[in-house]
Amino acid sequence: MRQRYICYQLAAGVFVAIACALLAGSVSYYLLPGKTIIAAILVFLTVLAVVTFIYRPWKTSLEIICRYLNFYFPQLEESSQLIIKPADNLNLLERLQVSKLETAILQLSEEPAAFMQQLKKAAWLLAGALIISIAILKLGKFSKITGGADEVNTNQSTQKNLPPEKVLPQIDGVLLKIAPPAYTRKTTRTQDKFTINAEEGALVSWNISTNIDVKDVFLLFNEREKIALSSVNKTDWQARRIITKPGFYQVSINGKSSDLYQIQVIKDAIPVIHIKSPKQYTHIDAGEAQRVAINTTVTDDYGVNNAQIFATIAKGSGESVKFKDTVFSFNTPFSAHSRRYDLQRTIDLPKLNMEPGDELYFYIQALDTHQQKSRTDVLIVSIQDTAQLLSMDGIVAAANIKPEYFRSQRQIILDTEKLLKEKDSLSTAAFKNRCNELGTDQKLLRLRYGKFLGEEDESGTEGEDNQEIGKAENFGNAKMVMDAFTDKHDNAEDATFLEPAAKSQLKATLNEMWKAELRLRLYKPQDALPFEYKALRLLKDLQQKSRSYVAKTNYNPPPIKPEKRLSGDLSKIAEPVNQQKIKPATDKFEILKKAAVVLEHSKHQVLTLADKRILELAAQQLAQQASTQPGIYLKAVSAVRRILAYNKQILASDRALVEKAIQRSLPESKIKPSATGTTADMGLGQRYFNNLNR
After folding, report:
1. What pLDDT sits at residue 318?
2. What is the largest CA-CA distance in the chain?
3. Nearest-angstrom CA–CA distance, 133 and 138
4. Average confidence (pLDDT) over 113-142
5. How buried is residue 341: exposed, middle or buried, by Cβ count under 10 Å (0-12/13-18/19+)?
6. What is the reported pLDDT for 329?
7. Would you say 521 and 275 are in contact if contact means Cβ atoms under 8 Å apart?
8. Could you tell me whether strands 217-221 and 281-284 are parallel, antiparallel, or unpaired per DSSP bridges?
9. Which has the closest alpha carbon to 332: 295, 371, 300, 360?
10. Strands (E), 180-270
11. Sequential DSSP letters for 287-311
């Protein structure tokens, strides 16, 4: 009984190990193709060793067997352990009981049910694992994740997207291996169809097996290039080719060609750069931080190899401008070659020895794993030249501009900077008093410029007038209605003193003045200074825009020679002659147009030799189109060949395919149908106009 118990425990461990091996093998069939048996054996040995080590059935003692017997067989009277005791250690009663137990034990017909309990559980586990493994092999679809991207590597999913094919009867089977380029970081995949959908630069290997011995096998690409397959035993043929462009090909066995098989090429896209900040034009006013924060995102379909900032610094003005080129790198490493990078870099302009008036031109260039480059537009960052802004050059000679207005804004800036320098030596009350006075000066200047936009004051009387119109006693008051709804030049929106562009810029100037006034009222002259500078810069720009110069243009005839004046000599004046060679126009789409007519006539009559010749020429032109766009024209080329091979009625589906491809190939007509009508002069005016244009 002890030996049978140990065998049952060992068998249960084997069943558990087999169940785990079946599950591991079915899963590894998809995740680790070619290593299924190795994975199953490793799992079987590991699980068997673990289960055996945990339960250790060989250490089962006779006392354990006796406890099982006492529990499951009452006729043993819970004294079976007396049998395993030495006879010398038994007393009289124990000897009498042993003689009774020997007869009872020999009459036992089976071992206890607990002996088989573990084995039954293991058997059920094995049956469930077998069912699950069969379901995984039949219905399961697994995907493998490689290189941080989801990539389906199963042959079933790859072939599911390919169209059905017709193969030559001599072909027993085909195996295509597609090895993508290394920069894509994709694994090699296989398929059993001829249609190819591969990455640009992928290496494709053909392994064709035939059911009979054949002499030669060729691959004909785009009806021009031929590749011979090599073989050892006349039934297995191999060839390799790097796919770089789309098209189609055929398999030729002993001179018999197959259908056309499509070749689609997946192009590698260039990196895409999206700049979040800064804007294309950035102007740093006085008082603002002289630094540029660059925030951009770079994406690529296979991975980004590097990204850099190429900058040019322009210093000086006029003919003394100097340029200096420099390159900045982002602080992000690109060793992982991820598909997306969020990049940041802050450029400190003073560290580049940039001064007020200098400009920084820069663009971002990205490089992908295929060494393809892309770059952004040039972004410009300029630092405001406060010395030039505060200068009085050009103010006296300005046209239609009151100089004191500009001097007032300039004087406010000078007073603000003076106040900041004297801040430590002033008392709090004196400091606030001077800030309030500067705010008042800024307000007066803002109201003065507001007159150009028709602003009267800030009392808000216009709203009160509108309320007066709504009263009952003012109903029918024509004067009040006219005052409210007529176009007045003292309205800010209706003011026509300035052009729309100048009005918009002047509104922006007033907005900056208001921001400066607000901060001066809050006793923050340091925060008000940038807005004051920006308001002055906008005023300067408006001043320059007001200047315009148009050169006087007139006709200067050549000098008249007195000796030829009034002589009447016309001998050197010849009648103008216009010679033009007109070449006969050649329509490269003439064959396709004739083919469309032939297909239309084929609905009612049989094709002649001349008709077939036209269709053959049309098939050649469609084949050229299919070499670049196989997905559109390849089916039409096959349909033309079937039409030429038919001796009876042409299938309507083939005719429709070819007609659709021909219509797609022909250019759009410049003259389109339109509604026509007869004019009152019976078209005489149109004919007169046409004659004038001759």
Report:
1. 59
2. 174
3. 9
4. 76
5. buried
6. 92
7. no
8. unpaired
9. 295
10. 189-191, 196-199, 202-210, 217-221, 225-228, 230-231, 236-243, 247-253, 256-257, 261-266
11. TS--EEEEEEEEE-SS-EEEEEEEE
Could you give the CA distance from residue 115 to residue 74 in angstroms, rounded to a whole number?
Answer: 17
Decide which of 661 and 489 is more confident.
661
Tokens found for residue 165: 């094919």
Provide CB contacts within 8 A for 376, sequence distance 6+. Answer: 273, 275, 363, 364, 365
- Going by the DSSP 8-state scheme, the letter that residue 58 receives in this structure is G
**Pick from 341, 334, 269: which is nearest to 298 by CA?**
341
For range 405-414, the mean pLDDT: 73
Which position has the higher pLDDT, 645 or 474? 645
- The tokens for 670 are 């410049």
Q: Is 458 exposed, middle or buried (CB count within 10 Å of its CB: 0-12, 13-18, 19+)?
A: exposed
Beta bridge partners of 197: 264
Non-local (6+) Cβ contacts of 496 within 8 A are 489
Q: What is the three-class DSSP state of 319? A: helix
Neighbouring C-beta atoms of residue 476, cutoff 10 Å: 7
The residues, any chain, with a CB within 8 Å of residue 529's CB and separated by 6 or more, are: 286, 287, 413, 416, 417, 420, 516
Asked if the model's pLDDT at residue 142 lies above 80, the reply is no
Residue 492 and residue 455 in contact, taking contact as beta carbons nearer than 8 Å = yes
Question: Tokens 């894509």 belong to which residue?
Answer: 184
Identify the residue whose tokens are 């269709």: 615
Q: CA-based angle 375:380:381, to the nearest 5?
A: 130
In CATH terms, the fold of domain 150-266 is: Immunoglobulin-like (2.60.40)
70 pLDDT band (50/70/90 cuts)?
A: low
**Per-residue pLDDT reduced to its tens digit, 196-236:** 999 999 999 999 998 888 888 999 998 888 899 988 788 88
For 449, phi then psi, to 5°, come to -75, -25
**How far does CA 353 lie from the centroid of its chain?**
39
H-helix or E-strand containing 38?
helix 36-55
Give the chain's radius of gyration (CA, Å). 48
Decide which of 3.30.420.40, 2.60.40.640, 3.30.390.50, 3.40.50.2000 is the CATH code for 272-384.
2.60.40.640
Residue 340 CB burial class (10 angstroms; 0-12, 13-18, ≥19): exposed
pTM over 0.90: no
CB–CB of 205/191 below 8 Å? no
Handedness of CA 444, 450, 451, 457 (dihedral sign): negative
DSSP 83: T
Tell me if 593 sits within 8 A of 666, measured CB to CB: yes
DSSP 343: E
Residues 179, 188 contacting (CB under 8 angstroms): yes
The closest alpha carbon to 343, from 273, 282, 291, 289, belongs to 273
Angle between helices 428-450 and 500-521 (to 10 degrees): 160
User: Averaged over 90-98, what is the pLDDT?
Assistant: 68
Place of tokens 């009040």: 480
Q: Where are the beta strands (DSSP E) in 288-423?
A: 291-299, 304-315, 322-329, 340-348, 359-368, 373-375, 379-383
Instruction: Please provide residue 125's backbone torsions phi and psi, each rounded to the nearest 5 degrees.
Output: -65, -40
